[in-house]
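Form 7-S
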Amino acid sequence: MKIGFFTMPVHRLGRNYTECLQEDRDAVILADKLGFSEAYVGEHLTDAAENITNAMLFQASLISETKQIKLGTGTTNLSHTHPVLVAAQAAMLDHLLQGRFMFGISPGALESDAEALGIRGLDRNQMFAESITHILDIWGGEPPYDLRGKRWKISTRETLMPEIGLGPIVKPFQKPHPPIVCTVVAPFSKGVIEMGKRGFLPISANFLLDKWVKTHWDNYSQGCEESGREASPEDWRVARSIFVHDDHKTAIDYGKKHERSPYRFYFKQLYTKLKKANRHTVFKPEKIFPDEELNLDYIVDNLVIAGDINSVVDQILAFREITGDFGTLLYAGKDWEDKELSKRSMELMATKVMPAINSAIGQSETTGVKPKVSK
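Output:
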């Protein structure tokens, strides 16, 4: 199993914006030095906590600062802009990264973004489907193009001058295109079936209970089967909120209990947003679970993996027992309320936790015996 990094990010309100951006950059640079395989960042236009406004622009700032890590959009919100802009900019970034680019996409879910852009009330899922179809057709086609959809029409026919280079849209460095990754945020998502059909790669969000994460693989496998492909667990990325420290008490305090815990702040922000949108059932073990029992303590206790090295190893192995095998564990980045604690957690994940997990997985696959999980 590989270790990767995914940050939305969610910073405490009132922090200096310049410092937040540098902190997010430092987190990815540290992940690169520690051998994390991938790093994804989200984007929003109208959120003071999730304040990266363009994931591609942010990742471009890290090209010369990183060596081996793949940099991904987590995600590019396709309803927010014209597909020609996305196709051309993503292709250029792929060339700048010389193949280290992962193209994460989504419709864009934040209502305040949609309102600001004048698209609130439109079918953003339809816009998403049309946009990615246009993008792939641009990358696979030649000018002058003749792409028509419900929202966008794309052509350079009237202005095509091939003798001086007018008309074509740049193609990516990776052939036929960079890996396309989609974040899955709902239990039993039907969208992940379509991902399997189209060869897109799924990321299961870090705010879903383990039992709901498992449903993503079942649906992804169905989509792969319907398209005649065999589903590979190596293609599945699963995000989790994790905090590990040498001292178990410190880990529980910072990861779950303290009122200044960035993990508690993260889930308070997310719960407030999802409850207003009537999507907070993602935190529930069953639909009939009472709202009055769904509080911040319940959410943090069930969705944050925290502890010393051995405890975190056991918790991740127990999680994998429920979900089944997956290829990359994405460590979900949080605000660096305490910079040294935050950096230490990433270091322990890379140097202690993941080697122990892979040793346990390897032993179980060799012997056919499930890894033992400490009680």
